[in-house]
Design goal:
The complex is a heterodimer of chains A (about 475) and B (about 475). Chain A is of the alpha+beta class. Chain A is built from 15 helices and 17 strands. In chain A, strand 9 and strand 10 form a beta hairpin. The longest helix of chain B has 21 residues. Classes of the chains: A alpha+beta (about 475), B alpha/beta (about 475).
């Protein structure tokens, strides 16, 4: 039987705040266990949460990235359940009044994937199972760090769509400085809700929820596995059980964690310790003004305004750093395609395979070199030598070019004398020039170059030819 | 002055005496510590902290050196056993928390300490502040200061009895639905539930977050006002705190007292109605105006209260789970057993009852019918009170339906125990201030309290009215 696949996502991303969402403990990854804790984030009796306004702002920013409606009134609620990593035995989250509502992302295939909401919540601590004898240890460093949860509508039908969507989400969150989205550190996590229904049917099938997807690749694999699993059950006339399944990346399959009957009743209610959040239009405008241009918009601009090929636009926007670097160069030296070539061919190979790289040359210096090459003060080969030297010494290109004797200024007189020499030695050149000048210009320039070791300015040579011939 | 009379003195008299070096803080603290020992059988005081004499000596030395000291310099202040003071035990009178040592200090303890008060002792209470008699406690039922066979009231029973017996000049209690006012009424002392948000809740074990308020229990009205002004104020650790500049332009010459129409019938059937009636008569003679006001849904307050506060309590008490600081069941083998067995063994019956009630009203399918409806009713009550206060400066009721009842009398009957809160919960649910002052003795010779409820931030008005009534000197 043919089926339609229906997929919805719940994406968690850790916000890039200095401090936790309800206390002033540091929000950092990799500290000694329980180093970043206080009475609030360890759920001591009597401790109370104070909301971190920056976390609220970052959540609003995320909403602005994806065209969400920003609520004027938002409420933090308590999600009640017991687990040792949850210090208060409730997670402060949002239910009825989230900060961001609606919005979405248009994929390359033209489909618009709708968001249901983006809300703010706190993360739980981390359990480490040591051994039977020692037991399990709890580290509350991550407890109370701020998260956003992005909940989509069930609009996806393939793993490719999900993959593109997730990458776009990550790209935007990183660009806007909202989150680092390092999946290997748990900085971005994705749960997948998936169901099948007979092709064309309007009735949704029973869905499963998959957890523990720690990389883009595992999301794709897990979706493909789950589609196959459900299909096989349905084809054999079986029924899908509504349950949560845990993905095992090593084994390449998922296993049941809990069924609907075992599902928790979270008993959500507004947290009486936290005043409702009011967000004014002015607040939103202020945050909007701080937003950088997002990658999709930049790509469009590079193609339309700068005339770059889509390939260049995609590579240049692969990180905000490269994109910002490129744009600064264009402001200094208005030659986007040339700059793009230098960055894509000559700079990116220098930082290959590195994460969080910085180009070893400033935008100003790079532009100076490109300019010299474009103005033919030096040729491209010399330009690359110069680039190398600037990186090694840190000196200015103009200074180095002189020091290294890369630019020898061949004077007008010297060029003129060479041209006169050619004219007297070779009468055929004069004859040919009189008939069809463009046919011999190249030869003449080449002659001068040969006799100046390539250091004459070709443009200058060209402009002087008519004076002699 | 003879030493034996420290227990007859007011907070301000003691503070002045210490500051002017008429008395030493150390001798005062020693006096009260000895008296606590003598009256141990009342079960009002759980422990006198062991560093109080050192602290008192240091204050005395500071004063002797001529250094500036705070407003409560050297004055011993007892705190209820649900208020955190760093390094001191705090148990909420629960087996579950019996060995817990506070890792930080509550905002109110810090405020008291910054005025150089001596955090003197912790007082008995109903477990996790749930109850109206201070019988639900691992330290033994607290006895009424006037009759050992009767209850102290609760949940701040220890604090009220300690002040009434003169075991300390002031004790801090917490009031969620009447837990300061009712025991104050039962023991002939002054108790107030301030406007919600006046006193920071940071470092006080939460029972019902949206109605919990800490406040002083004192012998006289002036002391209550004095200590409350020290506790009050916006706190960066509690988002729900408000600026505490209590509203009061100039003292009015003539106040208008409101009598709530919906409560009149109830009050008339009370055994102590003649006393209440007599008090009204006196007030009329003293020149107070009277007006009948209406708070149409006031009788629904109790139902509303017993939905909202258990709901919050169920969530607030979830952190006591046998994982971190509460005792863990010795027989727990699995994670689920750690939670279930530890909590079943650790919490007393009344606490378990409220946790179950709270989880029930929050559970899916019942949330709208109970919690949501109660929230709507709460909003309605706030509006109704605001409208009533357009016509009067305060609404007057008895604080409790009657005198302190007998120990063991209601403990088996939670519903009749809950009815004790009839007059106190409306102010709790509505967030408005309510002051209880002693005004008469009932048929068994036990104290009765009069409750003045006012609009938000009208504490000073309430104090002023209560002081004008009989000069505010009843019982002294």
């Amino acid at each position: 039987m043919e089926y339609d696949v229906v997929i919805g996502l719940e994406i968690h991303a850790e916000l890039k705040t200095k401090t936790k969402v309800f206390c002033s403990c540091k929000n950092e990854f990799g500290a000694k266990p329980n180093a970043n804790t206080c009475p609030v984030c360890t759920g001591m009796p009597g401790a109370l949460p104070i909301i971190n306004r920056h976390a609220v702002e970052l959540c609003i920013k995320a909403g602005l990235c994806f065209g969400c409606k920003i609520a004027e009134y938002a409420v933090m609620e308590r999600k009640n359940y017991f687990y040792p990593d949850l210090a208060k035995a409730y997670q402060i989250s949002q239910m009825v009044h989230p900060i961001c509502v609606g919005g979405g992302i248009e994929l390359k295939n033209g489909k618009f994937m709708r968001l249901n909401r983006i809300h703010l919540e706190e993360d739980a601590g981390k359990l480490t199972h040591i051994s039977r004898a020692v037991g399990t240890l709890v580290d509350y460093n991550r407890g109370g760090t701020p998260l956003i949860e992005i909940v989509t509508e069930p609009d996806f039908s393939t793993a490719e769509e999900v993959d593109e969507f997730l990458k776009r989400v990550r790209e935007s969150l990183v660009y806007a400085g909202i989150a680092d989205c390092k999946m290997e550190e748990g900085g971005m996590r994705c749960d997948v809700n998936l169901s099948l229904k007979p092709k064309g049917s309007l009735v949704l099938g029973t869905r499963t929820e998959m957890k523990n997807l720690n990389s883009f690749k595992s999301v794709t694999r897990a979706i493909e596995y789950e589609i196959k699993r459900q299909k096989e059950i349905l084809d054999e006339g079986g029924k899908i059980i509504q349950e949560t399944r845990k993905w095992d990346d090593a084994k390449g399959k998922n296993l049941s964690m809990r069924t609907k009957e075992q599902a928790q009743d979270y008993r959500y209610f507004p947290d009486p310790d936290i005043l409702p959040i009011s967000i004014s239009k002015i607040d939103v405008e202020k945050i909007k003004a701080e937003m950088p241009m997002l990658p999709e918009e930049r790509r469009k601009k590079y193609v339309a305004e700068f005339g770059l090929p889509e390939y260049d636009a995609a590579i240049l926007t692969s990180s905000k750093y490269v994109s910002d670097y490129f744009e600064k160069c264009v402001k200094i030296f208005d030659s986007p395609k040339k700059i793009s070539n230098w960055i894509m061919v000559d700079l990116l190979k220098l930082v290959k395979e590195q994460e969080d790289f910085v180009f070893p040359i400033s935008e100003e210096d790079l532009c100076e070199i490109i300019k010299m090459v474009e103005e033919k003060t030096i040729n491209k080969t010399v330009g690359l030598q110069l680039l190398d030297a600037v990186i090694k010494t840190g000196k200015k290109p103009s200074v180095l070019a002189k020091e290294m004797n890369l630019i020898v200024t061949i004077s007008e007189e010297h060029i003129l004398s060479l041209l006169n020499k050619l004219k007297s030695e070779n009468a055929k050149v004069s004859e040919d020039y009189a008939k069809e000048p463009q046919k011999v210009v190249g030869f003449i320039v080449g002659y001068v170059m040969k006799n100046t070791a390539g250091k004459a300015n070709a443009e200058l040579v060209r402009s002087l030819i008519s004076k002699v011939f | 002055m003879m030493k034996a009379e420290f227990d007859k003195m007011t907070v301000q008299e003691l503070a002045d005496g210490i500051r002017s070096q008429k008395y030493k803080s150390e001798e005062i603290v020693r006096f009260f510590a000895e008296k606590c020992e003598k009256f141990a059988k009342f079960n009002a005081i759980i422990e006198v902290f062991d560093d109080v004499f050192d602290k008192a000596r240091k204050i005395d030395e500071k004063i002797a050196r001529g250094e500036k000291v705070g407003k409560l310099a050297g004055v011993p202040v007892a705190i209820k056993d649900n208020i955190l003071c760093k390094g001191k035990k705090m148990s909420c009178a629960s087996k579950f928390m019996k060995d817990f040592v506070a890792p930080y200090s509550s905002t109110i303890v810090k405020k008291l300490e910054s005025e150089d008060a001596i955090i003197f002792a912790r007082t008995n209470m109903d477990e996790f502040a749930m109850g109206g008699s201070t019988e639900n406690t691992i330290y033994g039922a607290c006895k009424n200061a006037f009759d050992e066979s009767r209850v102290a009231g609760g949940s701040s029973g220890g604090s009220a009895v300690a002040v009434a017996l003169g075991l300390c000049p002031v004790a801090i209690g917490t009031d969620t639905g009447g837990s300061v006012r009712q025991p104050s009424s039962f023991n002939g002392v002054v108790g107030i539930k301030p406007t919600y948000g006046t006193v920071s809740r940071y470092g006080i074990v939460a029972f019902a977050s949206s109605t919990d308020q800490a406040s002083p229990i004192t012998k006289i009205i002036e002391d209550s006002e004095f200590v409350l002004s020290i506790l009050a104020g916006k706190d960066e650790h509690d988002m729900t705190t408000i600026d505490s500049d209590f509203e009061m332009a100039a003292t009015k010459k003539k106040y208008t007292i409101g009598l709530c129409r919906e409560l009149t019938e109830k009050i008339k059937t009370l055994p102590e109605y003649p006393h209440f009636k007599a008090a009204l008569g006196k007030m009329k003679q003293e020149g107070f105006g009277f007006v009948e006001v209406s708070v149409p849904h006031i009788l629904n307050s109790l139902a509303c209260y017993y939905i909202l506060t258990p709901a919050e309590a169920a969530s607030n008490l979830a952190r006591f789970d046998g994982v971190k600081y509460t005792s863990r069941s010795a027989s727990a083998r699995t994670l689920e057993e750690v939670f279930v067995k530890s909590r079943s063994e650790g919490f007393g019956k009344e606490v378990q009852r409220r946790i179950m009630l709270g989880n029930f009203v929050l559970s899916s399918g019942y949330f709208d019918a109970y919690y949501k409806k109660a929230k709507a009713l709460q909003q309605l009550l706030k509006k109704e009170f605001a409208a009533a206060f357009e016509k009067c400066d305060c609404i007057l009721t008895p604080t409790t339906p009657g005198e302190a009842f007998e120990i063991g009398g209601k403990i088996k009957d939670p519903l009749s125990m809950y009815l004790e809160d009839l007059f106190t919960v409306p102010a709790s649910i509505s967030g408005i201030p309510a002051l209880s002052v002693p005004y008469a003795k009932g048929q068994h010779g036990l104290p009765l309290g009069l409750q003045f409820m006012g609009r938000e931030k009208s504490e000073k008005v309430l104090y002023d009215i209560a002081k004008k009534f009989e000069g505010g000197r009843y019982g002294i």
